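Progress note, sequence design subtask.
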C-alpha cells in the first residue's frame, strides 16, 4: 500500500526538516540534530530530560516504482528518463519528511494538551544510555513474550539462573 498523506506535496525536504526543528523548539526541545545517508535520514532531539531519535527510511533511487512503468495497452515495461525517475524519487522523499513532521507535531501536541505523557508518546524512540532506542531493545522481548506466552522478568538481572534470587 502506498502512502497517501502528502503524496503530492510541493514542500521540500529542507523545509520539512526546518519545520521539525522549529516545532521542537516551540515545544521546548533543548537540542536538535539531523543527518542522512543513502538509506535513511535521522532526526534526534532532547526534551524533557530525554534524548529521542527518529530514523526515517529513505526510498531506494533504483526502485522500479521510480525507474520504470508499465504500458497498460501493451503490457510492456518502459524505462523512465533519469530526470523523471529523480522527480518521482524526490516526491517520495518529500512525502516521508512531511509525514515525519506530522508525527512529531502530533505527539508533542498530545503531550501539551495533557492527552498523553512524553514518555508514552516517544517511548519507542527514546535513546537509552548505550545509544540504542527503547523500541529496538523492547521489540524482541515483546515478540518472545507472544511466542512463548510468558512474560519476561521485570528485572532481567534478577531472573532465573541468578543464584542471588
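Output:
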Amino acid at each position: 500500500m502506498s502512502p497517501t498523506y502528502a503524496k503530492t506535496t510541493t514542500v521540500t525536504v529542507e523545509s520539512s526538516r526546518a519545520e521539525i526543528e522549529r516545532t521542537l523548539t516551540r515545544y521546548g526541545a533543548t537540542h536538535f540534530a539531523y543527518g542522512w545517508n543513502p538509506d535513511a535520514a535521522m532526526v534526534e532531539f532532547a526534551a524533557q530530560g530525554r534524548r529521542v531519535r527518529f530514523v526515517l527510511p529513505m526510498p531506494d533511487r533504483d526502485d522500479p516504482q521510480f525507474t520504470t512503468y508499465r504500458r497498460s495497452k501493451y503490457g510492456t515495461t518502459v524505462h523512465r528518463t533519469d530526470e523523471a525517475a529523480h522527480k518521482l524519487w524526490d516526491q517520495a522523499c518529500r512525502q516521508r519528511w512531511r509525514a515525519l513532521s506530522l508525527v512529531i507535531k502530533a505527539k508533542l501536541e498530545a503531550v501539551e494538551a495533557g492527552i498523553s505523557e512524553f514518555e508514552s508518546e516517544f517511548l519507542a524512540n527514546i535513546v537509552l544510555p548505550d545509544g540504542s532506542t527503547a523500541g529496538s531493545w523492547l521489540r524482541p522481548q515483546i515478540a518472545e513474550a507472544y511466542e512463548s506466552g510468558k512474560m519476561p522478568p521485570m528485572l532481567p538481572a534478577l531472573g532465573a539462573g541468578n543464584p542471588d534470587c
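Residues 124 and 135 are 4 Å apart (CA to CA). Work on this subtask will continue into the next period as scheduled.
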